[in-house]
Amino acid sequence: MKMKSVTCDETGMTGPQWNDSIRPDQRVSYLEALPGCETPAVSEKKRRVTYRSFVQAAAIVGFSSLFIPQAATANPNIVDNRFNSVKSVQEKSDYGLRNGSFIVVPVPFTNPIVGAGLAIGGGYLFQLDPEAETSFIGLGGMASDNNSSAYGVAINLSFGSGSSFNFALAEADLLYDLFVGPVEVPINQDGVLLNSGFDYGLTDTISVGAAVRYLDTTISLQTAGASIPADLIPDLGLELLSLGGKFEWDIRDDSDYPTGGARLNVAANFGTSLSGPSRDYLYASANFDAYHSLSETTVVAGRLSTCGASSNAPFFDKCSIGFSDGFRGFSPTQFYNTRLLSAQAEIRQRLGKRFGVVAFGGFGWTGPSFGSLTDNGLRAAGGLGVRYRVSQKFPIDFSVDMSMNNDSEDFLYIYVGQRF
């Protein structure tokens, strides 16, 4: 049968030949399966993955993420011309550890726990395989205006089989207020964290994973001579090992700015003490996100969250409004217990190519059991936010949100990306 020599350039791709018997509507899938040939959609997806991977590298101050959800998720100072060095990694035809690119990114943030600050990450990005997502090796550090600081190193390796390996080692010295019952206690927490995990994609929409965490942490009071609340004494000095598993189902149409689809993420962990008094505990959480487009510029997003933990779990492994669910409107160190249930909704409106606005709200409960969740009262909050798209090629936003809760407290959040 006659073979027609067609370069991918004629269709916006690169390279091979196809048989005249292959229908035009089959050619994109056929070309994507050939080595060295990518459709524009695949190339765009890989460039976006490259950017997200470096965002993770810039935020590898992983220790602080135990206590500071969304402290640093991306770089609001990245603009279009900054993407050139990132995209060049994927635009090369060579793959492997030697064919990568170095990038350094600053990450401003504001959150209710440590206040305002800056995280700086430096990373080396590369692809191990043409079918793999971007891998990275990164260094990072953060400092905030309340004298909290952290630094660490992270490695994320992505393989063409749909599997990935991650490793992070960090050290931190954090100052924040912890609510022990009705008492607000200023504490100083320092220590070392090691996090590592392996994920495997069973299908295009389902993945499973396993993780291990080592944590050696010490807690003291910021005020010398102050009395230590009795509930905090078991958590003052801990050396812990945690083993966990996770499941994710993801049918979103985009991982950066979803306009349709849904995602379910479930994680369960077993923790045990390595020194001091024997201590074994469990903790697990689940988040379900859904997205629906009302128009080309308007999206409604929602999140349902639940969490459960053993009664003897350390406070940072219990269920917290703001930490377990990404809730805006309360300090994550205020309302935490062994059970949680919350719901959030957000409407996202684009105002042209660069700007957007959001309105959000939610409510939740924490308590010692699901049957007694409402005994401690409803926690509700809502607010408004502004979005600035940092690139016309990538749907990633610089976000500023102001929220107010039903205790008449207001909180400011500055981060990059969407809350969920």
Structure description:
- This protein is mainly beta and 420 residues long.
- β11 and β12 form a beta hairpin.
- α2 crosses α4.
- The protein is globular and about 55 Å long.
- The chain folds into two domains: 37 residues, no CATH class; 379 residues, Beta Barrel (Porin), CATH 2.40.160.
> Could you give the order of the helices and strands?
EEHHHHEEEEEEEEEEEEEEEEEE
As laid out across the biggest beta sheet, the strand order is 3-4-5-6-7-8-9-10-11-12-13-16-17-18-19-20
Strand content: over 45%
The largest pleated sheet is described as:
16 strands, antiparallel
Q: Determine the fraction of residues in helical runs and give it as a percent range.
A: under 10%
How many strand elements? 20
Q: Count every helix, treating DSSP H or I runs of 4 or more residues as helices.
A: 4
CATH architecture of the largest domain: Beta Barrel
CATH topology of the largest domain: Porin
What structural class is derived from the secondary structure elements?
A: mainly beta
